[in-house]
Amino acid sequence: MEVTEQMNGDNARKADHLCVLVHGLWGNPAHLAQVASALRSRHSETTLRILVAESNAGTFTYDGIELGGERVTKEIEDSLEKLSNEGQRIRKLSIVGYSLGGLIARYAIGLLFSKGWFENLEPVNFTTFATPHLGVRTPLRGWHNHLWNVLGARTLSTSGRQLFLIDSFRETGRPLLAVLADPNSIFIRGLSRFRNRCLYANIVNDRSAVYYTTAISPVDPYTDLEKIKLNYEEGYDSVIVNSNNMLTLDNEGTSRALINRISAGGGTAIRGIPIVALLAVAIPIGSVVFLVNSGIQSFRSQKRIRLHEEGKAGIGIGSYRIPLILQEARSVMEGAYEGMNRRQSQEYLPAGEESRRRERQGSISSLRQSNGLAGSNLDDQINAITEEPEEDHIVESEKTSKTSGGPQSGKEQPDFPTLALTDEQFAMIETLDAVGFRKHPVHIHKVRHSHAAIIQRRVAKGYDEGRIVLRHWLDKEFKV
Q1: Which tens digit of pLDDT belongs to each residue from 110-126?
Q2: pTM (2 d.p.)
Q3: Which of 61, 102, 357, 442 has the fewest CB atoms within 10 Å, measured from its CB?
Q4: Helix axes of 143-152 and 331-342: crossing angle, nearest 10 degrees
Q5: CA-based R_g, the chain, Å
């Protein structure tokens, strides 16, 4: 929709701040109704205008983050032009992304920055709720996780390939999400211009995007809540975890046993079930419907992408296809996908791998900073760095990371094992943490679908905890 409210008169024209809301995969503007309502209840039409993006509604989210970002950018530009023609000058911009919408929003931010919009607009707030900043691939180790990464990536057309990090984005030869987090990209340059950046991440029961990716974290300290004691922010009904002092362990014996069990790769019994049997027995009907529909929607998505590339989709793509790297420095479908995704288990780096990973990543970062865009010679150098050493040369070293909760953390937190992420994902964490996000872990208790509840995507029993999350956001983070 163009703007959530049709406002007229002098009072409406006084507002100089536009807040853009971007929904997620399979989403539509109605999913963000409670977010828009919460904003309006706190900030009147005299101070804030609200735009709920609608150009990616439904299966249009299959079309990829790039195309989705271009559509949202056009909506923002059209809205700014319309408001200007009505005599209203917008001076400040805030963007909120939910789920996949957070990635689409980050892409749009890069385009807006590159086109010079931030010379006249002050970027104020950027917030994501349950956004998979690191993608949705399951941490690497284990054949069952690898099979899920291969199959899952091919069910959501272009968006699926990008979320599972198997795409090769334009001339970079790298996954889009890696480019989106490149420190020399227009996307990071644009993101860094925002005065406030924060994220909200579910610690449990997010069947679409788990904690490590929504919190931009190399660890997940919330794998067994029975073994830890969460510390909550006062006044938010045990929903918002205190990001300065997230958790304590019941006792040293329990904590060490827990960490050793996690490090050894211990998991649930479901890991022992072959994934073929799982798909054939546990969720047969939903899986068939989902996969058939995914094939149909992927075909339609590729057709839309082709029309978009040919300039026949109502958007002149020439103004959006700009240099990316700055040289100067529905329920069955959704339920089936979530059902398969949540059954995948996390794996951890073995002893010695964490230090070797950091050493390799440091070398790769240095090469990219000195070479700019990837070329054949650079690719050869990177391949040489990433080749696995002989087993005899693996050095035993520390394999745990500290859970910090982000740059704002105060007290030192317990050590937890590092997840077996890819080098690209570790690089994303490094860059996004350097930009700086205030991170708020969220504990939804009442429903086992925290991905929807975190923003109260529907008005239903148990989803009211999402109102607490939104209240915290408006109390602590959102500035006008």
Answers
A1: 999 999 999 999 999 99
A2: 0.74
A3: 357
A4: 160
A5: 22
